[in-house]
Structure formats: structure tokens, C-alpha cells
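User:
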Amino acid sequence: MTFKVKGFAALDPKSPLVPHTFERRDVRADDVEIDILYCGAYATQIDIKLAMTGVLLLILSYWADVQSQVQ
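Assistant: Predicted structure:
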């Protein structure tokens, strides 16, 4: 099953981050689900990453649900 979620995306390498809605599937047995507490990016990292392929976000989080054992 899939459902719509909200996030931010740079839709091409030179565009700014904008609100973006996309579809996500349910967590499977080989996935890890996390809750994002804080998210940020430094301007220089965004500039470098956007020049290459997209956007870089630094995520600080904790594990919310581990669906399978990590090996």
C-alpha cells in the first residue's frame, strides 16, 4: 500500500527547495523507520550538491521502528 507524504525537494539542480508531495510505500520487513527530530543543511553543502545532482539534508534522528534485525 502507498500513501502521500509531504517533504521538500529541489526539482532540478538549480532550483530552490520547495514543498513537495510524493507517494511512499508501507515499511517492509527489510526497512528501518525513523522519526526525524531535526533537519538542516549548510548553504555550502546545498550549493555543492545542487551543482552535482540534487540536495543534501543532514538528518538527526532516532530509531522509531526496526522491522528486522540489523546484521
